## 1
Amino acid sequence: MNHFDNSAQLACHECDQIVTIPELVDGQKAICPRCGYVFTRYFKKAQSRLLAFSSSGLVFLLLSFVFPFLVFTAQGSEKTVTMVQSLQSMGNGTFLSVVIFMLLTTVIVPAVILGGINYTLISAKFDRPLPYTRHILKLVFYLQPWNMSEIFLLGILVSMIKIASLGHIQFGWSFYSFVLYIGSMAATRLFLDKYQVWQWFRHHDKRGYGRER
Amino acid sequence: MGVNDNLDKHLEDHEHSLCQDNVGIKHSFSTCDMCYQSSKRRHGKCRYCGTPIHIRKKDSLQNTVALLITSVVLYVPANIYPIMYTTSIGDELASTIVGGVITLWEQQFYPIAMIIFIASVMVPVAKIMALSWLVYSVKSNRIISRKNNQMMYRITDFIGRWSMVDVFAVTVLVALIQKGNLMMVMPGVALIAFAAMVVTTMLAAFSFESRLIWDNPDKNKGKNIDV
């Protein structure tokens, strides 16, 4: 299963060298001979793996909103923190901008990315491209650098250590779900290969689906 | 077997074609940054996905410099003003970014102190310096190594987001400890300035055109540059 068009020439995105991408086997990557830019990394069944990880990531992200995230016990009082609650408690006054930024980069952008991947891949899987597939794919790739969920996880761990001396912290189900979501997101990122994803859809177009400008 | 033979032959072919003349701009040949559709044009829209094509990003250096200056300006309040106020039993303690690192170090949280120091002090400065060097290097043709420049750009592009770690840590802390019985954490102005600085340095990295690192104006002919 290899949809590469071998005759296609490309100009490297980073150094403008004109190259052709050779046929690749599982695990191989195509890099630019001049600057080392990675054009694509080929994995067997990347499409199914991508769909599996992106859908599980979406489920874990949604689940991390349902349960308590942390239980913080200090000076005899216990406080259960959920994601929604913590966002609400900060959402006032001058720091609204930071909270909105955090909400966008750690929840909304990743959710749109994962949702978009699911939407487009399901349509590819059943050989029936759904409407706006190209627009959604473009949105997914535009948003990618703004996905900061793994940095948020590191931020949580740093703040945990900062207050570790003040009380007792217990992780809730949502926290574990969030960690699993970060794992799925990392795997999704590994298999989300811009070059190949577009090749899949071009393959469909050749067979008469989609819309050519 | 077959595929690997193909690959070897392919690499040999590449050695031939690997010269300064075989670049897109000389043949008016461009590849869409979004969907890898190649076309014989310098601008316009990609015929497959509709993304605007620029064989070189327009006004790349000006935009990068403008955003870099903005981030330098934002860097000052981000470090002077407190990022967080901790109130415990009536005592209010304001801590700046560097102050927070020192406190963590004194409390013997060495790895965390290192992470915060690297992410919020070293990385932004290194990023601003790296991008300034790249702009200067491209503008004045003072190139030491194109490969190193490219690597520098790639690292800058990749690492920038991680500076946000302190912003997220403070925000989580504020959410955890608020209007409590004895303790309270409030965010400071530096939080906004710092977050804005990270965003502007990210935008500066995006607007930089890395192909300029490899463009070889005729002025440079004869100089000893590795390709």
Note: Chain B touches chain A through 75 residues (CB under 8 Å).
## 2
Amino acid sequence: MTIEEGVKYVAAAYAIILAVLVIYYFMSARRVTALQRDVQLLEDEAKRLQAPAGEAGAE
Amino acid sequence: MKKLVSAPALFIGAGVFLITGLMLAFWYSPVDSSSMGFSQKIFYYHVPIAETALVAFGIAFVAAVAYLRTQDLKWDRLSYVSVRLGLLFSILVMITGMIWGKAAWDTWWAWEPRLTTFLLVCFLYAAYWVLRSVVDEEQRRATYAAVFAIIAFINVPITFFATRFLPEGLHPVVISAGGTGMEGSMFVSFFISMIGMTLLLVALTRRDLAIENLKDRVTDLKTSLGG
Amino acid sequence: MNSQRGGAIDQGAAGAPVRGWAQFKAIVRKDLIRELRTRDMIVSMILFVLLAMVIFHYAFSVKEGADLTYFTGGMLWVTFIFAMLLGLNRSFAQEKDEHCLDGLLLCPVDRVTIFLAKTVGNLVFLLIIQAVAVPVFTLFFIERSYLGDVLPFLIVLLLADVGICALGTLLATISMNTRSRDLLLPILLLPLIVPVLIAATGATTLIFAEGAGLADLLARVLFLLGFDAVFLVAAWGTYDFAIGE
């Protein structure tokens, strides 16, 4: 096999590796931000619900 | 939590090592003198990925044992995160292995030790996922998964051994890692890539673990709000 | 299901090992008696194995008088493995439906004893099947005289059987308690069993095709021995968790 043909295969192999890893990295990054946002929203909601309930309970 | 999740240092570190390894592989290490020729360059990532996959399964094994001893679900989490990453890396091993096989020996598949073993490894840990998906109760799922992760990991070196040494006269193709005793320059590139892959595994594991913890937190919050 | 709580499973005065042995015998006896009384599992497995051999003949005989000598090991062990999957599923499903295992767990029985007893029980079933299947197999597929090869073959057979039964028992215990039940067992067991398959089929083929003796088969036999040792210990250590509630 000539160098040129070899290069095609080697390039393909490395390209696949990098593509898969990079895609996985970005997908998980997106997951992280989405989840952190959800946690923030839910925590705010919880705090909001506690405040009026506290007032109502005090009365 | 934010610090744990982003941990950019690990990813950057991994990236640095991987790219350095890549450059060394192509511009520092010599082209392989065997008949494989240029396609041997695939080895510099292929083998580190393979070894990293095995490290991931090893982590899953240790975590499984820890879970069985402590019944603490955080170990179960680490276990299945590691299995998932190990499976991802194993699939990459298969793909790059097949490409290497085609480049070096003009065949997309050969029943040679490494490809066969990783094929079985993929089946084994895919079975792990199936097992997890058919048990509904959390502690029981974690227990069964842990037992299987332990058995599976013990089976991996045994399978390596069996596929390599037992069949006789059934070695049409052997993709060797440049023979025993790598030249010094080959070893450097290989080693740097190896470190890079391992760092990447650690970085991805931490992030995936954080994702699972976040998911858990979301569920807890939803329950406490809804209930 | 009072039978398993009677008699031998009892607070013996002689101490744990003796009690364990008595419990072991009791469980094995209970399983064997239950199966031999109805015989449906064994009969089904035997029929399956014989039918499989007929199918193998037609599956492989594309050419007139095709020589299947080097396929013998493969055919035999594939048949046994699939028969074992059927048998394991059947016996554990029955146990679960009749809640035998729950009853057993209420007794002060060491989990490991249960594991060994179940494994031996399954091993006995497998050996019974094989005792019928192998002579028929040699009738169908082996031309040359094979009487001198009996000993190596039996050793390989037994060693491979132990490995299959040990892992099969452990995994069947797990899979029976999942949603998929019997569908899950092959998926879990087959990948783990491949090394045994490699060693056993190689050895069996060499025995039948070339009359190989123990000396030629040493690597495979030692491998099977090692496999059995490793996984008996591993199953030993984890069975408590597999069966626990």
Note: DSSP finds seven helices and no strands in chain B.
